[in-house]
Amino acid sequence: MDMEKLKYPIGQFVMPEVFDQKQVDTWISEIEALPEQLKSATENLTDEELNQSYRPGGWTLRQVVHHVPDSHMNAYIRFKQAITEDIPVIRPYYEERWAETGEAKNGDIKLSLDLLTALHQRWAAFLKTLKIEDYQRKYIHPAHHQELTLANMLGMYAWHGKHHLAHITNTITK
């Protein structure tokens, strides 16, 4: 299998031309569904399986599971900042370094799955309070040197969850 397919098993995120309430609802539903999908995909995995990488040079499945709530916690905070501040500059984090910390490399995935469940419940509840025009609010990501809309980021994080879920499901079905 080629490296691009291993890196991006569902392809890269592409923002649809039409962004409407139907799209918002779809993405929120995907965010709500992700914790249970990850639990289901990982519930019978052994430590040996969790410690295998989804691609050469890539993270282990355990690191992927821990990465998702790390990333989505940051996303939740960024969304709240963009709603409560005028085009805030967000604080980036080094996801590759976070994935190398002890609990991310060796820790029990149940902790991260429980965290993701609570986080996504809270995040979805928050997202459902937003009006369609709120998704045009922006934040600045200094590493990308651009303003990003919440519409784009909602889609990106819905994609992000499915992207990493595919890393896990594709690896365990090999």
Report on this structure.
The chain is mostly helical. The chain has a single domain, classed as dinb family like domain (Four Helix Bundle (Hemerythrin (Met), subunit A)), CATH 1.20.120. It has helices at residues 3-7, 21-42, 47-50, 61-84, 95-98, 102-106, 109-127, 150-172; strands at 138-141, 146-149. A two-stranded antiparallel sheet has the order 1-2. α4 (61-84) packs antiparallel against α8. It is globular and about 45 Å long. The mean pLDDT is 96.
Task: Write a compact overview of the structure shown.
The chain has 174 residues and is mainly α. The chain has eight helices and two strands; from the N terminus they run H-H-H-H-H-H-H-E-E-H.
What keyword list fits this structure?
2 strands, mainly alpha, single chain, Four Helix Bundle (Hemerythrin (Met), subunit A), 174 residues
CATH class: Mainly Alpha
Order of helices and strands: HHHHHHHEEH
Largest sheet, strands/sense/barrel: 2 strands, antiparallel
What is the fold-level CATH name, i.e. the topology? Four Helix Bundle (Hemerythrin (Met), subunit A)
Strands, total number: 2
Trace the largest sheet across and list its strands.
1-2
Helix content: 55-70%
Uncertain parts: none
Overall pLDDT: 96
Number of helices: 8
Which CATH-level-2 architecture? Answer: Up-down Bundle
